[in-house]
Structures are given as C-alpha cells and as structure tokens.
C-alpha cells in the first residue's frame, strides 16, 4: 500500500509519483501489486476541476503513461467518464497496458460535512473482483467500507480479500472510527480488508495516512505510519482455507500528539504546495502565537520562519520578554516593529471625524489593523505567507479583529479550542523536554493587550465553560435549551450562542485553516450570514 501525498490538479505529477512509488516498491520490497489512494491522479478533493473539459483526456493520458512505465501491476484511483457519466473510479493497470484492465466505480458517495461527491459523481452499482496470482481480490473505495453492501457484494462475487482505496481526512478520533468500520466489514464477510489511505494537507483538510489491514475476524494485522508518506508492505499468503496477512504494526498517535502533527502537516503542505518561501507571524507573547510559531518551525524549519513583535503602549514587558525568549529558543528570524507611529498617524487622520466621540473598541481594533498592515507588507515584500493565530473559541464568538489579527493566508489554530491550545502547548514542551513555549506564556491569563490591564475574561466566559458550550452548540448541534439542560447558565449560553451566530460574517472572511475536530467552521459548518433564525429549541 503506497501512502502518497498528491497535489490536487497536478495529474501529470501525480502520475509520476505513482510510477516512482511502484518502482521503489518493486525494487526495494519485491512488491507484486501496489495499491494507491482514492483519486490519486487528481488529488482529493478536486472540486470543480472535475468540470474542466480537458480533465478526461489528461486522466486517460496519465493512465496510459503509468501502464507503459510500471513494472508491477497497480491499483490507482481517478475520476472516469464512461458513456457520458462521471464516476469515482479505481483501475487495475498491468505493465504494458495503456488503460485499466479492471475498473471499479464507487457505490456510496458521501455528501455531508466536508464531502459533496454527489455534485460531481454518479454512483456505481456492481462489485469488481479480479484474479491475481491465485487470489480473488475485490475493490471498494473509501465510503463504501462504511456500509455493509459493497463489501457483501464483493464477497458474493467470490472475493478472497477486499482492497479499499481511501482519501479519508483526519479529525479527532477518526482513526478509531475507521478501524471499527473496517473490522465490522471484515467480520460480516469473513474477508481480510486492506485499507490504503492518502496523506497530506489540502486547504482545510488533512489526510493522515495510517493505512492498515485486518484479517477476516477483524483483528489488526498491520498498521502504517501516520502523517507521513510511506510504502506499507503487506504479506498476503494462504494457509489452508484461510488467507493470512502479515506486516508491521506501528503506533497511531492520539490526543494532543495527533492534533499537533496534523497542524504541522497542514502548514507544511499549504506553504510548500502553494509556493511560498516561508511563513511569518505576529508573535505577541501570548499562548496562541507561541503555539503557532512552534508548529511553523516544526513544519518548515527555523530558517523559513519569521516572527514579528509589534508592541504598543499596552504591551507588557513580560510579553516582549517571552516573545524574544521563544524566538531565540527556536532560532527564527525575529524583528520588533512598534506600531505607535502608525497608530498615531491613523488617529491624526481620523481626528476630525472622531471629534467629540468616546474612545471604544474602534481604537482597539485600529491597533490590530496596524499590525495586520505590517505583516501583509512583509508578506508581499518577502514572499512568505502570514499565519494568523486566532483559535476556534475566538473565531466562534468573534473575539478577533476583521482585517487586523484575522489578516493572513492560513489560520493554523482555526479549529483548535482555547483549552486545547493549552493542552497541545504543554504536550509540545513535554515532548521537547524543554520550554519550546515559555512556561510563563502558558501560565499567565490570556490577554489581547489592546487596553490597560485587559484580560480575555473581561469579555468572555472562562474558557473551560466557553469551550464546553461551544463544543455542544457547534460540534454537536445541540440547541441552546439542550445546552442549558446539560447544566450551563441560561444567560451565558444564550450570549455565547448569539455571538456565534452573529459572527458568521467574520468567519466567512477569515483565512482557511486545517480541520481537526468533528465540526469545523468553513466547508464543514456553513450558516447564512443574513438570516432571521433565533436560537432556542
């Protein structure tokens, strides 16, 4: 099983990756069959690239190129138009063939959360089982394995084992859920199942690989690496009437480690696949920017990361000291750009229209927007992408400044609740055995430092309470009244719910960020900006 990281839309490059991996698997591991992920030739999700007129020709050319170049049979995923109908396909190509000898069409098309395959594909309706070295191998694709029908059809068609091609994105607890589904299909059919998954970051989605195989009783027989490309050797051999599977079982990261590694992979691929020279961010001395910096360095290396402290009259000496300490510890380029002159310049321009009006959040937002202007100027000049540092808790209730701290190209913590920011930061320090993130940054009360003695709790509920409410309302779709019945204060719940609903307009203008939870803002959770809905039951 070849865990590969395709580039969406780069059909020719992805075909070369198939050829190279097949050659490596044959030469180094003696592979006799190499399996690739779902839609390997286009990457996942290709979205409206599937509607481009030249796509079909390019796919056919790529399949012919692969067939001529490989020295070992391969199973690869791609979109296929047959008799005027577009389908999500898996083809079996043999050396010398200019097209697939066997072709399977995905039967179960996901059309929920981040998936919208029914927009592009028509479902298949039949099993495909082919003979290979005395074995009858059935093929399914991703969502097929979450339902009993396709696997049962393969078993009825005489399959000895099922090969499942996947582009299954990561989220918390997803590896465990995958295993439960695959093991259930194995027990239902009595057949081993090989689960080959994609790896890599693609805009909001992160694919974690973690390919694995189970035997006919649903027992784990082998487990590939997570969050990295690799070739996963699978030894299939018959022992009497039983088909045995052998291979290495690698550990699957969970909890804070899995979230951190997903963020690192997402940043690395977003920066590299989009051709940025590196990444830069505003380093405030707070926990969010500190964790974002650690992720960026692990993703790109310190030589490609720049941190910018932009102090103002309300910035504490502690923040300045901690930002510099972390920048030095991680060996990144670090500069200090005070925003006082820019702020004063804007206030001078605005003196007449602001005359006689009280100071309010306008002046606080102006500070953030001064910082956003500076970061975007550095990005334009140097070719690095700006990483925004807001977390999911803040993005939910709008505790962020449009065109200020929200200005940037990639929002690393967009789907990470504040309580998890602290957990992941502590894990990263523990893993390093040193203060990658200064302990004082973790321990101090969070503050935007846009006003004297300001702390987040002046404007928001305690993060433990806020995140517990948001998890129920955003991720579990519980109503306000249901959240209250779960034991939360009525006034606090309705305040949080109203803020969440009201700030959809901000989130629509925020940078894209990796999905790591059960329900992320963006492609996963989309509410109308203009609406008359009122929270309640």
Automatic annotation (TrEMBL):
The annotated pathway is:
Cofactor biosynthesis; NAD(+) biosynthesis; NAD(+) from deamido-NAD(+) (L-Gln route): step 1/1
Task: Show where the CN hydrolase domain sits.
Answer: 1-238
Q: Which domain of life is it from?
A: Bacteria
Group of enzyme by EC: ligase
Q: Which residues bind ATP?
A: 282-289, 389
Which residues hold deamido-NAD(+)?
365, 394, 506
Q: Which reaction does it catalyse?
A: deamido-NAD(+) + L-glutamine + ATP + H2O = L-glutamate + AMP + diphosphate + NAD(+) + H(+)
- Which parts of the sequence bind L-glutamine? 112, 168, 174
UniProt keyword list: ATP-binding, Ligase, NAD, Nucleotide-binding
Q: What is its EC number?
A: 6.3.5.1
Active site per UniProt: 38, 106, 142
- What family does this chain come from, according to its entry? Belongs to the NAD synthetase family. In the C-terminal section; belongs to the NAD synthetase family.
Q: What is this protein's function?
A: Catalyzes the ATP-dependent amidation of deamido-NAD to form NAD. Uses L-glutamine as a nitrogen source.
Record-given protein name: Glutamine-dependent NAD(+) synthetase
Annotated organism of origin: Alloalcanivorax balearicus MACL04
Query: Encoded by which gene?
Result: nadE
């Amino acid at each position: 099983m070849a865990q590969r990281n395709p580039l969406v839309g780069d059909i020719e490059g992805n075909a070369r990756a198939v050829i190279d991996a097949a050659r490596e698997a044959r030469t180094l591991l003696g592979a006799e069959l190499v399996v690739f992920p779902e839609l390997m030739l286009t990457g996942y999700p290709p979205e409206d690239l599937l509607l481009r007129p030249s796509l079909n020709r390019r796919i056919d050319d790529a399949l012919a190129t692969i067939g001529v170049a490989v020295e070992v049979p391969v199973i690869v995923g791609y979109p296929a138009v047959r008799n005027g109908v577009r389908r999500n396909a898996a083809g079996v190509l043999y050396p010398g063939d200019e097209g697939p000898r066997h072709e399977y069409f995905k039967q179960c098309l996901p059309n929920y959360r981040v998936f919208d395959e029914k927009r592009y594909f028509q479902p298949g309706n039949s099993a495909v089982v082919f003979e290979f070295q005395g074995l009858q191998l059935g093929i399914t694709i991703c969502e097929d394995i979450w339902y009993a029908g396709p696997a049962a059809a393969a078993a009825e068609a005489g399959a000895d084992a099922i090969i499942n091609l996947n582009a299954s994105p990561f989220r918390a607890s997803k590896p465990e859920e995958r295993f439960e589904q695959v093991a259930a299909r194995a027990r239902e059919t009595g057949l081993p199942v090989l689960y080959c998954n994609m790896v890599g970051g693609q805009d909001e989605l992160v694919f974690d690989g973690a390919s694995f195989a189970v035997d006919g009783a649903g027992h784990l027989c082998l487990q590939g690496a997570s969050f990295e490309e690799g070739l996963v050797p699978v030894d299939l051999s018959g022992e009497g009437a039983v088909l045995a599977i052998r291979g290495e079982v690698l550990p699957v990261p969970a909890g804070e480690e899995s979230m951190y590694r997903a963020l690192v992979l997402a940043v690395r691929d977003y920066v590299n696949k989009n051709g940025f020279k590196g990444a830069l961010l505003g380093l405030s001395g707070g926990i969010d920017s500190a964790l974002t910096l650690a992720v960026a360095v692990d993703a790109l290396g310190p030589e490609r990361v720049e941190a910018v402290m932009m102090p103002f009259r309300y910035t504490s000496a502690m923040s300045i000291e901690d930002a510099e300490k972390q920048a030095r510890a991680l060996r990144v380029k670090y500069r200090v750009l005070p925003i006082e002159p820019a702020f004063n310049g804007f206030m001078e321009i605005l003196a007449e229209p602001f005359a006689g009006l009280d100071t309010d959040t306008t002046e606080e937002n102006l500070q953030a927007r001064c910082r956003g202007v500076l970061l975007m100027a550095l990005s334009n000049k140097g070719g690095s992408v700006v990483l925004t540092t807001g977390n999911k808790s803040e993005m939910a209730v709008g505790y962020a400044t449009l065109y200020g701290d929200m200005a940037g190209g990639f929002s690393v913590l967009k789907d990470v609740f504040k309580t998890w920011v602290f957990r992941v930061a502590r894990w990263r320090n523990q893993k390093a055995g040193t203060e990658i993130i200064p302990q004082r940054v973790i321990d101090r009360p969070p503050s935007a430092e846009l006003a004297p003695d300001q702390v987040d709790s002046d404007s928001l509920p305690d993060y433990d309470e806020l995140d517990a409410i948001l998890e129920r309302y955003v991720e579990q779709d519980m109503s306000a009244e249901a959240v209250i019945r779960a034991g939360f204060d009525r006034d606090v719940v309705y305040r949080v719910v109203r803020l969440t609903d009201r700030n959809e307009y901000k989130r629509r203008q925020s940078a894209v960020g990796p999905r790591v939870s059960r329900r992320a803002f963006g492609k996963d959770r989309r509410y109308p900006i203009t609406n008359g809905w009122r929270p309640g039951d």
